[in-house]
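Suppose a colleague, Dr. K., hands you the sequence of a protein chain of 149 amino acids and asks what its three-dimensional shape might be. Before reaching for any lab equipment, you can write down a predicted structure in token form. Begin with the sequence itself:
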Amino acid sequence: MSQVARRYHERGLKALATGDLEGALEALRSAVELAPAFGSARIAYAIALARYGDAPRAATLLRGGIPRASSPVAAAAMWATLGDVLTVGGDFFAAEEAFREAGRVPGYEARAAAGLARVYARLQRFPEMSTQLRLAAKISGDAERAGRG
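The predicted structure, expressed as tokens, is then:
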């Protein structure tokens, strides 16, 4: 991976953290253009686009990155972020599918369940929302206990 792409990524993250959305968009777009398989830059750029109000473009960016993911974990991170972006954009059924894809990868089950709970809340499917919230809490609690073991 290009050191220049990494520097653009770092610059974009700093801009996002300070609220400089225009600067973040510019830097992160450059990072993705220089290194299309740079999953973290792609995710950060999608988040910036969604904050800018361009959820459809953010979703397209993530969908284009999933086949380029360097590992199943990187793909799961993109699927989960895609679910978040689609939820913000109001495409709840596509978000549901994205979170289900993310949840198939070990380590992403809790994030996927929490995302599904948000989707189900928006769809007013409250029993399913409750089930997913309980699942997310259980997985998170089990992971926390295992870490202390």
